[in-house]
Amino acid sequence: GDRTLVANRCLNFWTIENRDALPNEIAQKLDGRLFGCDLCQRVCPWNAPENNVAPLAVPLAAVEALDDAEFRRLFKKTPIFRARLDGLQRTADALRSSQTRQDSENKEIN
After folding, report:
1. Cα angle 9-11-88, degrees, rounded to a multiple of 5
2. Helix (H, G, I), strand (E, B) or coil at 68
3. What number of other Cβ atoms are within 10 A of residue 33's Cβ?
4. Whole-number average pLDDT of the chain
5. How far lies 80's CA from each of 17, 65, 95, 107, in Å?
6. Which of 102, 96, 74, 94 is nearest to 15 (CA)?
7. Could you tell me which residues come within 8 angstroms of residue 84 by beta carbon, excluding any fewer than 6 positions away?
8. Which residue, of 15, 23, 33, 64, is most buried by count of CB atoms within 10 Å of its CB?
C-alpha cells in the first residue's frame, strides 16, 4: 500500500480515543487487547528493539470491577489513564462479548 495510516482501522484509536461503543467487527479484531495495539510501533524500522516492551496482562474481571478511585490510583500517571475508566471497561465488555460469541460459534462447529 501507500503506507498511509487509516485511523478508523487502528486498534489504538478504537480502544483509547473512541468514546462510543465498539462495532462488532472491531471487537472481533481486538485479539485479547484491552488497551491499544502498538503493532505499528513494533514493526516500525525507526524504533529500536529495546523499546519493544511486552504488554501487561490484566484480567477482564479485574477491569470490570474497578471503581474510579482505584482506576486513578493504578493508572493516573500512565498512558492507560487517557482511555478513562469507562473506555477501559467498554473495551473489556467488547472483549468479553467477542469471546462469548467465538465460544458459541466453536461449540456449534464441534
Report:
1. 140
2. helix
3. 17
4. 81
5. 11, 16, 17, 34
6. 94
7. none
8. 15
